[in-house]
Amino acid sequence: MHIKSLVIDGFKSYGKRVELNDFDPEFNAITGLNGTGKSNILDAICFTLGISAMNTIRASTMQDVIYKSGQAGVHTATVTITFDNRDKSRSAPHYTHNDEIVISREVGMGSKNTYRINGLTVPAKKIMDFFNSLQMNVNNPHFIIMQGRITKVLNMKPIEILSMIEEAAGTNMYESKKRSLEMTVGKKDNKLKEMRDVADEEILPTMETIEKEKQMLEELNMVHGQLRILKEKLDNWNYVQLMKMVNKLSEDLKKLNVLKQDKEELIETSKNQIKAMEEQIKQDEELLKINGGTNLNKLKVKLEEIEKEKDKVQLQVNACKTNINVEVKKIKDLEKQINNSKKGYEAKKKEMEDFNKMNAGVEEENEKNTNDLDEIDKKIRSLNSGNIFGDEDNGSVQENINKYNLELQNQQTENQQCAIKIDGLKKKLNEHLTGMKEAQKTYNIQMAQLTAKEKEYEKVKDEYIKASEALNQHHNLKSSRDNLLREVRNLSSKTESFESNNPSLFFKYNDPRPNFDRRKVHGLICRLFTPIDFRFELALTTLAGGKLYFIVVEDDTVGKDILETNKFSSRVNFIPLSKIKSNSLDPKIISRAQQIGGADQVFPAMSLIKYDKKHLKAIQWVFGQAFICTTKGIAEKVCFDQGVNKHCFTLEGDHFNPSGSLTGGANTQRLILQSIAKQDEVSLELQAKKAEFEKVDNSLQAMHNLQEKVAQLKDQQIFVQEELEKIRSDVHLGQPHQQVTEFNKINQQIVELESKLAEGKANEKNLQKKIKDLENKMKNAENILKKQLSDAEKTRKNILEKIKKNKTEYDKKKNNYNKLELEIKDLTGQMQEEENQLVELNVEKKQLEEKLLTLMSELEIADDKCKEASKEYEAQKEIAMQNSNAIQEHKYLYKKLMEEISTGQVNLAELSSEMTKVTNGSLAAQEKFKDIDKRLPDEQKQMALKMDFINFKSEECNRSVNELQARYDQLAKVVDPGKLNNFHKHIQEYKRLQKKLETIVKDKIKINEIIEELEVKKRLHLQHASNRVNIEFGKIFSSVLPGAQARLKQTNVDDITAGLEICVAFNGLWKESLEELSGGQRSLVALSLVLAMLLFNPVPLYILDEVDAALDLSHTQNIGKMLKQHFKQSQFIVVSLKDGMFSNANVLFRTKFVDGSSAVTRTTCNQT
Question: N or C: where does the chain have the smaller number of CB atoms within 10 Å of the terminal CB?
Fold first, then answer.
């Protein structure tokens, strides 16, 4: 963003409206006689930027900026600046959509002070925020450089120069935060001291005095409480004992009466229940016949039909998938064939192109032979006419001899001139030899330094590129790590949920001894195998039963040690592999069983599971002696066959025992094998994800400081690049480079002239030879004519043979060309046909895929129907089982009721005798209770009823009451409870004070840590800024004063905060003080330092007001060139009276005074 135009109306010396248009984006200068309004243009710009300090624009009040303070009829001052905002990368926030931004400020004679942005009135703060966003704070304007600032820099002490660096780097922010935190620490220290004084002088002495009396008071209260409690407890115990006796006897009497009535009612009720039970048993037996027979069979048939339908759809799905795979293979084969055809087509096409190229060469050769034939015919005709010199240039022989003589004279003259020039250059070269060796040596050293620095730059650049690529990889790894962490957490959550829901599937125990080998505990049986097909899960679960939860161990010692050192809440069974004996089914028995039921209907249980061989004994012990059959009929036949005689289990969980028993109906076994298999898959996936996460995390840990390394390498690259540019500038502008370049240039000129002279002498000899040959031809004309005719005829014959031979070869190749055309045509047709076939195959593949989707939908529907039918079948089985259980329960109750009637009749006679005894004891206890009931108050009686007297001993209680009464009388004489009323208040106050002290100490430690961190950051930022400013300072000073060097040097090498001082050198000799410099040189030093700081943190606009006042013309010229070279990204507006400065500007504004008001003219300077 830069100033495009400026309009001043009524501001200071500009009484009339003046427009300054077409400012240059880079370098603008303002000049004019003193008093014509040069600096007022800069004041107008600062005025519009929102400056509040009026002395900066040389005014004391707002009225002073109005033309003649409002006394000349002008009552307002308005300045409008139009900014070019097309470069969006340097635009202010929220204004990137504007290509132009117009800001104006208007003040009046009253209190009027108006700002506008793009015509809209805005508050002054918005103007300040706008320019602050561009780092242009007009109330602390580092972008405005006046002559006074240059003088001030010259007189600065090292610490003041450092403060300039701090201001440019923005480290004052760290210092202000540090001062604020140090003030906070001071306040915390004062508060801490005050609180500790209060604690030590007031609270602690009072607490120590009261502590002793508190202990005695506590003992007195304790004794009094114990005494009162024991007395009440004695009375309560007597009261409760008598009440219990009375109540117990009354209750016993009531219970006996109730019991008698209950027994009588029970006997009658039991008789009625027996009749109802007989009816219920009859109804349940009929219901079982219906639910367990007819309905259950219907549902089973329905389930089998649905399963067949599902299998049919599954077969269609499999066939469709197979067809799709076949089509995909055909497509791949056809694509491969098409690629081969294309390659053949390209090869044939290339042969045609090669033929065309060769044919083009043949045609060119034929044309050349034809032209040669015409030329030789022409020559023969010329020779037959008597012209023996037909091969010479046009004209007679004598004319050619004269022409060659003239060319010979010109060539000899040119050769003489070249020889004279060579002698002159060699003399000049000898003059340059003086000091050449030293210059060449210096130049070689400089070039070696430049080459070394270029290699260093390339090395740093490569390291930065590699580090940047590694940083990108770091970001990708971080994203992968986050994704893996989420997956690990999800899988861990699933695992934890499974463990919490299924604690019985995990055997948890403590190691019986140190260094116990947990590999000897193999785990639960159910975790050591997996069914090959989960439709056998119910059968296998029923077969194993409770053995699924037995624990397999290496030997019996392991199980014994675990049982001795662990307390398990439930029973634990171990299977020691070293002791267990197991056998597998005899192959003959297996063969016999499968002959009975069919090999696809009868399976040895061991053949239906997968397991580790090391667990074979335990698995055989559980599953080794049983068969799994698909139906009950098959299971029954196999089980009771004399050649088999083994346990058989059906898919529904029915058990046929060779001993003759049959177990079936609703199965209460929990099906866990499929859940375990799924959880094992989750566990394997979790282990894999954890390993992958650990690998990625380790990679990230190895790259933890990569971002800092990239930043360091970037800074190092910039630093080395700047050094490289400085060395290049020194080499190319240095005297040795110019000397060596001039020397090499002279050598090159000598080599070129010597080459030209050699060519001239050769041409001179050639011309002399031609003249001699022509003179000889004049003497031997007749012999020459015959020889030339003979040579021409031979040449003509050779040309005719070549033409004939070329025609024969061309005809032969033409036949091959026609054959290629036919082959290419056939290949084109073949490729088109193959493309059509490929389209057809893709269509068929798409149709098959659509059919597969339809079949998959049908399969899902069939699967849902199958699940629904299975649920209905299981529900019906459950109902039948409930009916069977109900019959058994009713029969058991019938038998029990008969026994109760017999027992109740015997008990009635015993109850009548007991009731008589209880009545007599109750009357005696009631008399004793009336006496104590009158003596005790109602509250105490209620409390007594609530007390527990299980371990109460009345004699010991009486003895304790007497002892406590004596101690109470003794303490009551010396303790005054009134003094201790405020003790708890002091304790609470002291605790609150301690808590505040701890909080203050923690806050103080934390603040000190922050202060140390701020100091480190400040030093690092300051060191970086100092290095950057130092580089620019040296480059700028060297450019404005060639042969000179400048730098900033730390007064303390180990501590940059001690200050910086300016050092200057001329021709490599460093000056001890700036006092050794002239006034102009000192001004150049100060100005170079200020400009270097501007480069550290550049802004869009810089304003310089006569900064060259103390400089001579040559230095001013260098300053102007330097501004154009180093500040291409910013706009400069410079006020100067010296031609050396404004002659470098791209646009020059000249001020003059016309009719009492300032006026401005614009000039475009020459731009290179």
Answer: C
